[in-house]
Amino acid sequence: MSASPPARQHNTSDRRPTRLLTQNSELKPLGVWNWSLPAWAGRLADGRTYNTCPSAGICRFVCYARSGTYRFPAVKARHEANLAFVLDDPAGWEAAMNRELSTPRFTDRWIRIHDAGDFFSDDYTRAWLRIIRSHPRIMFYAYTKEVARFRRLIEPDPPENFLWVYSYGGTQDTSLDPTADRVADVFPDEDSIAVAGWSSQEASDLLAVLGPRLVGIPANRIPHFLKRLNGRRFSEWQTEVDAERADRRARSRRARLRAVGDTTGRSAEPSPLRRAA
Ligand code: SF4
């Protein structure tokens, strides 16, 4: 048997976090623990690139988890170590999460899945489903923009101890139905939430899954974020961006058809007769 070159190893086992669940200043008073990944896209220390929020839209421009304390080197390294653990040793990560959740401190508590990041793949989502089902005495919740994945993998048979809210500002916003889905939108401020008739979750993050179905989140008071938000809701901003993109695509398609028509001397538009056939 000939020897093949060794596969590239990502030796991150020595940097694995010993504890997977933490509490931040917002969730600690509620007794909620959370699991976090690094937000959106980046590069791990070993050079691998990642995107933990594949359906993020405009939210990435004003992402709370890409500013402030989340950018502290120790915090960022911790979140990246979490991600590396999931990617390098998914079975080991799942076992470690199950072990940690089996300790009495989490019994009858809430776990927020993802302070930052999202359900970035089917395998990762299925792993969470197995974890959630293994711990019926723990309640889990999440915000997500992975609408299609949830419709396919979670909605048909959701675990009883898992609640979620779809959040606007992603590339799948148009798949959301605010008359039926539990949805969260970021608003410029508390007043605009009340004017729209939505319910603010400002008093407790758990209201996002336990309160009324239309969940309003007041925007972070970060001046350059507020400037970009420009008085809009995330859903409105995303709709504008989607419309601009559709318009750009239509214009470039028309330009391509015109160019083909110029080259051949014929109109590149299909014959209306053929179209009707
Ligand atoms: S999905 Fe959440 S964590 Fe990811 S970029 Fe958007 S706001 Fe940030």
UniProtKB/TrEMBL annotation:
Region ranges (Disordered): 1-20, 248-277
| Stretches assigned to the Gene product domain | 23-239
Database matches in Pfam families? GP88
InterPro entries of this UniProt entry?
Answer: Gp88 (IPR020290)
Question: What's this protein's name?
Answer: Gene product 88 domain-containing protein
Q: Which organism is it from?
A: Haloechinothrix salitolerans
What taxonomic classification does the UniProt entry list for its organism?
A: Bacteria, Bacillati, Actinomycetota, Actinomycetes, Pseudonocardiales
